[in-house]
């Protein structure tokens, strides 16, 4: 999901977590909405497995982006 997200000095990370929450709740692309996931919970279904995996991947990317943002902010905050 993140396309060269630059979080420093912006609200990009907040926007990113809102986008992930919206994508997982309402669905987007291959990710089915949470109502569909609840009603069609079946790991033997390729559609379910692909949607769940894509949703997990989006979440992991968002966490990695947030951690990178914190690392950048911490580096900039160190007095020299």
Average pLDDT, rounded to a whole number, is 80
| Rg calc | 16 Å
Percentage beta strand = under 5%
What is the overall number of helices?
3
Indicate the percent of residues in helices.
55-70%
Low-pLDDT runs: none
Distance between the termini: 34 Å
Shape: elongated
Query: What structural class is derived from the secondary structure elements?
Result: mainly alpha
Largest sheet: none
Number of strands: 0
User: What string gives the helices and strands in order?
Assistant: HHH
Protein topology:
Layout: H1 12-26, H2 34-39, H3 46-77
Can you walk me through this structure?
The chain has 80 residues and is mainly α. The chain has a domain at 30-69. It is 66% helix and 0% strand. The chain has helices at 12-26, 34-39, 46-77. α1 runs antiparallel to α3 (46-77). It is elongated, with a radius of gyration of 16 Å. The model has no long low-confidence stretch (mean pLDDT 80).
Concise synopsis of the structure shown:
The chain has helices spanning 12-26, 34-39, 46-77. The protein has 80 residues and is mostly helical.
Which key phrases capture this entry?
80 residues, mainly alpha, 3 helices
């Amino acid at each position: 999901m993140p396309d060269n997200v630059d979080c420093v000095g912006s609200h990009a990370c907040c926007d990113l977590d809102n986008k992930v929450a919206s994508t997982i709740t309402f669905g987007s692309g291959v990710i089915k909405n949470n109502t569909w996931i609840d009603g069609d919970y079946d790991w033997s279904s390729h559609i379910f497995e692909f949607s769940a995996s894509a949703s997990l991947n989006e979440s992991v990317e968002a966490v990695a982006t947030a951690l990178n943002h914190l690392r950048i902010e911490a580096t900039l905050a160190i007095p020299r």
